[in-house]
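User:
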Amino acid sequence: MLITGLLVALLPAAMVWMSSDENKYRKLAWTCVFLTFDLIVFGAFTRLTDSGLGCPDWPGCYGLANPFLAHAEIAAAEALQPTGPVTVFKAWVEMIHRYLAMGIGMLVMAMMATAWVQWRKHKRPGFEPGMPTVLFFAFALQGAFGAWTVTLKLQPVIVSTHLLLGMTLLALLTWFGSRQNIVHDTLTGKKIRPAAPPPVLRAIRWLAVASGVVVAVQLALGAWVSTNYATLACTEFPKCGGQWVPLMDFEHGFHLWRELGKTAAGHYLPFEALTAVHWVHRNFALVVVALAGYTAYRAWNIVGMTKLARGIAMVLGAQAATGIATIYLNFPLAIAVLHNLGAALLVLMLTMLNYRAKHQSDTALHSESSTLRAAAPSRHQQ
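Assistant: Predicted structure:
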């Protein structure tokens, strides 16, 4: 398994090494962002095809390194239950997901090791080891939840946490990559000027933070919908079951520690509980669209934020469309995967917007303070 993970990591590592970009450390950071984004989307495909238990043990498949070696065991399980959790297709989907995760883990470890070596030797800007070390431990925690997802047989709270940690890792890597961009611009002599007055930038910064918070809540709600298979608890829009406020069971629906499809007492989960989970996620989406949309509107004409603002607005529209289409078209796999892809895009772009708003706001405040300090002696002399 370790050799497979290393082989998966070698291709992107070689592409970074042979690239024309002089700042290969920054290139490595953004390569990790790209691969983590891919991992999240493929993880959604794994979950939506019910391939999470395609290999019912961890980290291997029936104790072996790949489904080729475990073909006899997989074939026997599939023969007993052809539509069950273990099939040849599902085993390969699950193991490819694990191989990709291990490859990214190797790249994160390489990034952390490089940071520590360069910082100890030269104290070079951009190689401060704190953030790469945090990224390594975040990835290790994500791997642990990946293992528990399998060993605890798709416990909803574990699967939901696994998804949220994946999005958190994507946000952390994007923040780190954005910081590397600024370090690179500073070292190459590129001057970054504030594109708006400090009060405007400060307002956008806090709007971006608030948008990030509500998106994180919506991600948690979406993960809870997905892991409890509550997507089709409401099969119409905007009403649910012919009512604006349907009959719902919040107590059982949002009880965290329980088996899949069961209440905490071990009884079958009532349909009203799934309705509650779906209904809350659907209606909280309105909060996300309103706040993130307003944030994009405020950042629309700010230099350095315009493209991100437009991208966020487009993704919000696409998320609404794919969410509604998932209901009306009876949960097609392709649209469900696109909905998860849109969520990851929203996390990526909001993280970049948060970093740029913070950086521009800090730069504007620093410039304003420097101007005031420079003007103070002149006033004193007068």
